[in-house]
Amino acid sequence: MASFQEILTAAVADLSKHGFDSAERVAKWQEQLQKAAEVYAGVGRRAEEMLRESFAVIYRRLIEQGGILRYHPGVERYTLVKLAPHLRGELSRRIQLSANLIVLNKEEAIAKTLRRFSGWATSVPVGGSDIVDKVDVKKAVTKSIKVLPFVERRVIIDQGHKFRASLSEIVARDNKAIAARWHSHFKEAGYDFREDHKERDSKVYLVRGNWAQEKGLVKVGTDGYFEDVTAPGEEVNCRCWVTWVYSLRQLPEQMLTVKGKEALQRK
Fold first, then answer.
1. How far is CA 262 from CA 79, 81, 127, 228, 253, in A?
2. Which residues are 181's β-sheet partners?
3. Per-residue pLDDT tens for 54-65?
4. pTM of the model
5. What is the pLDDT of residues 22-46, one digit of tens each?
6. Is residue 212 packed enough to be buried (19+ CB in 10 Å), middle (13-18) or exposed (0-12)?
């Protein structure tokens, strides 16, 4: 089978010579281009393999090797063993969701490529044109599909951040965390941080309805509830993370009620 670039070169040459003299001519080339583009974009299967490999590495480091515990002071490692079925399920779910996103990006890139070709082809006058810059036309048509590998790598990285945050929240919810302390990468050179995420750095957000709140030991502070802000990794390319709070002693004093302060004094 001729390559995508070969078919595009032939299509641009044909339309430059004959122009848009029939819908059938454009449709014929579109059909060939779509088939070739699907083969070309089939390298996305390698992206799906990279996705699985990347998520497996994240899971092994955080869960099997216990790396996630640095975000959960006081939580014992046996907890991860107990949670293994749930965490494994999240691994499978995230892989499937991310793989679907890669497929959707691939389909969108092919659709944009065909629209650009059609838009150009139908603008060439009947009888063709001697002033068509074939190189520029091909660059414009292939713009979306050429950057597809970059887009796929970006998806893998971004979905990896989301996967880490999701695993951490599962551990937190199961172990009844009472709050979360936000950490931003804004000090990292070259990191394109969000201004509002920078402002969240070191803030402590109460988990709504946690056990300590139900017992009247804590109250929501000036930073508010964790559920009322976007979660770490939720927004595209967000690399923020949280450390989870399980002890009253780890909370700012203004988040403790009188009852909570008294409880600490008795310990």
1. 30, 35, 90, 29, 12
2. 204, 243
3. 999 999 999 999
4. 0.85
5. 999 999 999 999 999 988 887 556 7
6. buried
